[in-house]
Design a protein that fits this description.
The protein is an alpha+beta fold. The chain is about 35% helix and about 20% strand. The protein has two domains: about 70 residues, Alpha-Beta Plaits (2-Layer Sandwich); about 200 residues. The longest helix is centred in the last third of the chain and has 29 residues. Bound molecules: flavin-adenine dinucleotide (FAD) and iron/sulfur cluster (SF4) (3 copies).
Length: about 375
């Protein structure tokens, strides 16, 4: 395929400090059975372990979300012209919806639409299951395969008693390592939920024909402005900086700022909004090198931005995404607000604004690292 190899990945991504540690290169290395590359330390980039078995095939380089080598191919496939990639990508329509299912609404981040859609797709046997994110504590998430509604609710972590888990956590993070999980479900038709960097890796895998990407039935993309990573010592600082106790945080939502839904017996329930520009030191460094906010290569994108509280903003993008979502609307499982054209334009403009902010942030950051 190319003369690229893991050495190039190391030079262009790891040495610049922009590896997301997503594990895509390790999990889908063409010579994975020889343990060519792997993580020697957690929270640091992968390294060569048995370099002599490297085929220099370049697969790791091509599917890495930080090399952007396949952008041109993907833009053609997903109909993104230059101005789309600068803004919100190609799309069919914009919606603002809320689930009719009380349980999904209760455990949902916004309108509970993603979980309701996954449950619907499992019910109609469009997919066998999905890889989602299990919340063990507010800043601790693990990728998990689910195939039932109850598992979706369980994995949301709603009403967890987190005080015991907090002691165990060494790194606090809002990022989920979903890509590596793909390898475990080779024979199932999967729904995938992911941030733009994760959906990008999956689209690269599909473009390159890397197994098991052919089993992915649908890509549900989340908006993402940034993710957070900090260790135990920084957690104390975080609590002091924002006058919050992590054991009181019930839910974390990332919208136009970081929203912490807190609860304790003294003050009852309250919501704390922390602006992104106060969170710079808690942000994952790799996120500074990322420009996609609204998940332009997903079949359908979802976010809170632009919608009322407890509603989800939805952008249908591909033919598949459009068809699936229209069928879902007909199922009467969700309540869809009627949006006038001007309202859709307002949402589009708001998403564009965040997309442009992200592009600007990346350009400034890359000037420093290059
Ligand atoms: C890290 C992160 C950053 C975000 N940033 C923004 C932002 O800046 N602005 C904005 O408007 N919206 C952002 N969102 C999206 C928003 O928080 C909601 O996820 C979205 O609106 C869908 O809400 P919902 O209630 O319909 O989804 P729900 O019904 O609550 O379902 C969400 C589903 O997604 C799964 N999930 C979440 N993250 C992952 C993951 N990484 N991998 C696999 N599965 C996952 C959950 O397990 C759950 O099953 C972000 C989401 C995440 C996870
Ligand atoms: S064998 Fe291919 S995918 Fe694996 S490390 Fe070498 S170049 Fe990368
Ligand atoms: S594929 Fe993921 S883990 Fe590998 S170099 Fe790229 S960002 Fe890092
Ligand atoms: S900001 Fe970009 S790199 Fe960071 S988690 Fe979101 S999509 Fe991935």
């Amino acid at each position: 395929m190319s003369s690229k190899s893991f050495k190039d990945l190391k030079r262009e991504v790891h040495d610049k400090g922009i590896c997301q540690e997503c594990g895509g290169c390790v999990s889908f290395c063409s010579s994975a059975e020889f343990n060519v590359i792997g993580f020697e330390k957690s929270y640091s980039p992968p390294v060569y372990i048995n370099e002599e078995n490297c085929l220099e095939c370049g697969i790791c380089y091509y599917l890495c979300p930080q090399t952007h080598i396949l952008d041109e191919d993907l833009n053609k496939i997903y109909n993104c012209v230059e101005s789309d990639t600068q803004h919100i990508g190609h799309y069919k329509d914009i919606y603002s919806c809320q689930t009719n299912d009380i349980e999904f609404l209760d455990c949902g981040t916004d309108g509970g639409i993603v979980n309701t859609l996954l449950s619907h797709l499992i019910e109609i046997k469009f997919i066998d299951g999905a890889i989602v994110s299990q919340t063990d504590a507010p800043f601790s998430r693990e990728a998990k395969f689910i195939e039932k509604k109850e598992e979706l609710i369980e994995s949301s972590g709603l009403q967890l008693d987190v005080s015991s888990q907090l002691e165990e956590i060494q790194k606090f993070s809002t990022y989920t390592h979903s890509i590596q999980q793909l390898n475990h479900y080779k024979f199932k038709k999967l729904g995938i939920v992911g941030t733009p960097c994760q959906i990008y890796t999956i689209r690269c895998m599909q473009n390159l024909g890397v197994t098991p990407s052919e089993n992915i039935g649908i890509c549900l993309g989340l908006f993402c402005y940034e993710n957070f990573l900090f260790d135990k010592s920084e957690a104390s600082k975080f609590q002091k900086d924002f006058n919050v106790r992590l054991e009181n945080v019930e839910k974390v939502n990332i919208k136009q700022d970081l929203v912490l839904a807190c609860h304790n017996e003294d003050f009852g329930k309250k919501r704390l909004h922390i602006p992104f520009n106060h969170l710079d030191k808690y942000m994952r460094k790799a996120c500074k090198a990322c420009s996609d906010f609204s998940n332009i290569y997903a079949d359908i994108s979802f976010g809170g931005l632009g919608s009322l509280d407890k509603f989800t903003t939805i952008i249908t993008r591909t033919e598949l995404g459009d068809r699936v979502f229209k069928d879902f609307l007909n199922s009467q499982k969700i309540n869809c607000r009627h949006l006038e054209k001007s309202e859709k334009n307002r949402i589009r403009d708001l998403i564009t604004q965040y997309s442009q902010k992200k592009i600007k942030r990346k350009n400034q950051f890359m000037k420093k690292v290059n």
